[in-house]
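Session log. Operator J.P. requested a structure for one protein chain; no other inputs attached. Running the standard single-chain path with token output.
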Amino acid sequence: MRILIALAFCLTMQLVVAQDYKVVSNNSKVSVTGTSSLHDWECVVNTFEGNVAATVENNEIQQIENFNFQFKVKSLDSGKSSMNKNTYEALKEDKYPTITYKGTSVNINSNTATFTGTMTIAGTAKKFSSKAKINYSNGKITLLGSEEFKLTDFNIEPPTAVFGTIKTGDTVAIHYNIQLSK
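Structure written below.
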């Protein structure tokens, strides 16, 4: 009987459950960069939400079961009101106010993870993968990475200004340094 109790205790000690980690917005940064015929540009995401369900064992991330990130289009800020207005129009903010990234799988290899899921921008959902450096320290998960994509892949016409004389490039990149905590 003692052997069964000891075995049951050992098995329950090995059972590790995924826990929910939420974005710590004041310690996270997300931005989108691109080019135009006039200059390179950056829009910082002022408000950002998300979470991951992760299994951590011996201070290492063993598994990420799911993830979900989103932000409001109007939280994109270039520092220039006219550019912000063109961005919101191009992203069809009036009809699709939120950009989302919902996970389908995460492949972890040492301190790198490949996140695969569905990105939805301006009402168009596409499979999207991004590699990130991952770290677990002091009870917090950090995700650091960037990924390029084309606006036209999401049925977005790259914005123009000044009667079409200034044109935004089709390729943009999302950059992120996200901290998550329980």
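Operator note: Confidence is low (pLDDT under 50) at residues 4-14.
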